[in-house]
Specification:
Layout lengths: L1 E10 L2 E11 L4 E5 L6 H8 L7 E6 L2 E2 L5 H6 L2 E4 L11 H8 L6 H14 L1 H5 L10 H13 L5 E5 L7 H16 L3 E6 L2 H7 L2 E6 L2 E7 H5 L2 H8 L1
């Protein structure tokens, strides 16, 4: 579904991505794992069109998207949940969700999408009149994912969804990501929590200093001694 081929990107003189190549299959969960500063978030930003690339190609269903503006990439079905959630704290839960549906004009469609988000995250329905900033960290992450789903994505980019959350909440979030995949959505998951990501995912890539250094089926990577030593503890 999504392919990156020899992608290079820079922050001024800093060579952030050094020939990244990866393939995300449709209706799968693909994991990117690695340490802080490895280039994981930069990869997602490049896919979203926010971070420019200097070399290489990014294609979605065979169509070149790396020369498209971010809003067109969203229209093509690529939606990102950024690190840190970035909800609108002064808006209600419902208002945050409605903003996620800005591509849609059909009120029934928006209502149906909101119902889907509430079905996935029942706590959001209970909190729908509350300001986003009053939610717990886990609830804010649920809201960020729910808001992204309001755009009817084909490919969901998740950047560190477990960051700063208690283990029980991480388990809940990962379970919901699995349900989203079961509904037919493709997921590219960036995580430092390599155990949680690989147990959930189908395929994984390890990124170090802007390069893919290892890839394979998630079950194989969980048992790989190098991955165990570096990322699984």
């Amino acid at each position: 579904m999504l392919r990156l081929e020899n992608v290079h990107s820079y922050y001024r003189k800093i060579h952030a991505l050094k020939g990244i190549s990866l393939h995300v299959k449709e209706k799968s969960i693909c994991c990117l794992i690695g340490a802080n500063g490895a280039g994981k978030s930069t990869t997602l930003m490049a896919i979203s069109g926010i971070q420019n690339i200097r070399e290489g190609n990014i294609t979605l269903k065979g169509d070149l998207i790396n020369k498209m503006p971010p809003e067109e990439i969203v229209r093509r079905g690529v939606v990102q949940v950024p690190e840190g959630r970035r909800i609108f704290p002064d808006l209600t839960v419902k208002e945050n969700l409605v903003l996620g549906a800005y591509l849609h004009r059909d009120k029934k469609k928006i209502k149906d999408l909101m119902g889907r988000s509430f079905a996935l995250f029942p706590i959001l329905k209970e909190r729908r009149g509350q300001s986003g900033g009053t939610l717990s960290g886990g609830e804010q992450q649920m809201l960020a994912i729910g808001r992204a789903l309001m755009a009817s994505p084909r490919l969901l980019l998740l950047d560190e969804p477990s960051l700063g959350l208690a283990p029980l909440i991480v388990e809940q979030i990962m379970t919901i990501i699995g349900r989203i995949r079961e509904e037919g959505l493709t997921v590219l998951l960036v995580e430092q929590n390599a155990n949680a990501a690989l147990e959930l995912g189908d395929y994984g890539y390890v990124i170090e200093t802007g390069r893919v250094v290892l890839e394979g089926q998630s079950c194989d990577m969980l048992n790989n001694p190098k991955v165990k030593e570096a990322y699984l503890g």
